[in-house]
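Could you join me in thinking about how sequence relates to backbone shape in a protein? Label the sequence line and the structure token line clearly, so we can match residues to local backbone shapes. Once you have written the record down, we can walk along the chain together.
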Amino acid sequence: MPKAPQLVCSKTKWQGREAYTLSNGLIQMVNLTGGGHIAELRFAEGSGLPTLNPLWTPPWKSMEPFQYSARSHAKRYGPLTEGKLLSGIAGHNICLDYFGPPSAAETAQGLSTHGEAPSLKWCKSGERLRGGQLNVALSLRLPEAGLEFIREAGVRAGEPVVYLKETVTNERKLDHFFHWTQHVTLGPPFVSTEDTRVFMSVTNGITSPEAYGAQALLAFGKEFEWPLAPASAGGEADLSHCLIRKGFGAVASLLADPSRDVQYVGALNVRERLLIAYCFRRADFPWVTIWEENRSREAPPWNSRTETRGLEFGSAPLPVTRHEAFVRGPLLSTPTFSTVRGRGRVAANYVAFLAELPEGFREVRNVSLEEGAIVVHGGEPDHEVRVSASGLKASGLM
């Protein structure tokens, strides 16, 4: 089909795995068909901008998760409970239709962590050029959940923005209650103790009610206000910093700011002057979950060498079994699941973007949307960067 100059979607390989690369000549996004993981979002070679990929690439060799067999692969990736997911995980993955581990009964039926979506094969189901934007759709069916899921990603010429729309269709007659979380995970070399800071439009939150690995950075089940969370050893941990304590991991969840319609999460590497951020509606995703793994997990495939920072926005606060989540009910007076009516359909729009920030721009105080632009506000009055985003209104975020 004819395309605008530099707007291209091509079938590619990423570390030997099947993928599609969507590019506008300025940025490129690599989407794996195995699990639907967005493995890369970075400025393109030749753009004159930092080409570092902020998204996490695991330190182990991955495989197509739908080919995982506990008999053949548990030694390398761990047992089915999380091994199927970990065998293929990368960057930004979707948690659907639950956020957390399966129950023992679900594991016995072949299910793994974070639902079916991040472990099944996705297929390209559409490509279209309309209004100067190239949209590419990847989709799959979740046979056990009875859902169909479609993610459309779009790019426009000259903009460091990806416009994303996700649609969940209920193929059954019964209303369906589910979790829907964008498991965005950042990794080295973008993530570092010295250079990386995290920014988000959140208020108060709660730490995980149970231990994370052998060494938990945070105290269990404690409420706090962003960014200072109660540490397990006493005192507070500043969660706006990354890789806080080697050998420790952390999970905590925070409320998206109820005074805002459109929220943001992001991270800035001040040495590279590179920002990655997402904007989304609170009505779709009222929770932001922090995940940090800092060489704390010893079992394969972690092997005490993994460093990550997760900025996960979704409809569920904490990665626990579905039974535990629904029994617990609302948290901090906020619902903890999404709903799609029988034979119904729900959709969510959000954007991901990159920006090179000026020298001395060391913090982000706010991200706002204007007609044709995403505005990044820094800590000083003259620190403001406008990111071209002509598709915001069409995306449904304005």
Notes: The mean pLDDT is 96.
